[in-house]
Amino acid sequence: MSEIEKEEETVDELLKNMPKLTDHRSKEEVYNRVKIEIEAQVKEEKRKTIAVSFSKWMPFIVSVAAILLLTFLVSSYTNQEETSMSTDTAEPTESLNTMDAKEESAAAGQANEITIMTKMLDPTIELIPLHKTTSVYEESVNGGTVFHFSLIENALSVPISIIIPKERIEADFVGVTPTSLQLYERYASQIDEEALGFMEYHPYKGHFIAQEKQLKHYLPKDHGYDRASGTTTTYGQSLNEIFTDFDTIISVNEDGTPLEWDQAGTLTEPRKLPGRLGHYNYYIYHANNGEDYLSPSFGNSNDSISEAFTAMKDAGNDLYTSVIPPNVTYISTEQNGVAVIRFDEPLDLEALDPSAATRLLEAFALTAASFGKEVKVENVVQQQWEEFDLTLPLRIPLGPNGFIMSND
Fold first, then answer.
1. Are 273 and 140 part of one and the same domain?
2. Please, are residues 93 and 210 in contact by the beta-carbon 8 Å criterion?
3. Which H/E stretch holds residue 160?
């Protein structure tokens, strides 16, 4: 038997052994679910330094992977159509949104087979930091889309805002305005967090299902997000920073049953996702990569905007630093719905490091925006500073720590 015949026989055997799946989800949901598992494995493999040559087997492996992926999607979609035609009564919602253990195992097995193909199709995304400002504003988006993301270090979640060019959105989401979940599922696994100087944390374990404005996170038994108070805080804060257009989220078991959360008991009620309106005040976080980021302290919220502005003067711990220079004092008031920061002594921004002066203004603007308000600074020597017209309320940021996604 020739080598080609052996390969064909192997492919035939693989196809014969394909499990018969019964999945009532749409083909798009099935594809996204498998894709997330594949990309998660790709990131896991990047952490290991295993030198294996695939040059000899690459054509064969890619061929098998393509056949497996195509067969899996066609099989799932066909079974869905057949089931819809033959069944008069609908099954419970939970059963429509989950797969049984055998089907999950089969999908995971197929995911393993096509890892190499996905790695070639979805290369790492390059993120370019903004320079003139650190935060993202409406005028800097240029018709693109802001993807809110979260970087993890020292059990801390640092929010970043990624501008995705309009051309890339139109290519990746034809005729669709993507939700934060769709953006996450499409791009999260392609972001090289280690290259940015942070730990590899994304994509989350398990998978998500959106039900109007509520998210359900289906978690495997070994998810580890409740291992300690620090991991729980990081998990919750990062979810809030990413899924900004959902109101609530609830974590459940893979089969949709209530999840037992360590130190908290059974989770039966969804948790609110305040998103950008979380009543936060902002500090400087100096990361291990040497860069400074604007971030809330552990996602702690404030009861009022005046309390938030006051809290900005002292971080209260060693992990964050106040944006307020030493000996600079101010009072906060509100006039006609606009928050006002008035410095006790004239503040000369030229006397500060340029980046520190910019972060000072942006921290005030981000804190006010977290309460849905604008803020104006008074008793500043300059009337114009970089991109800021200080005779007017500061522009409302769309998010802190801006990056631009490469359009390659």
1. yes
2. no
3. strand 156-164
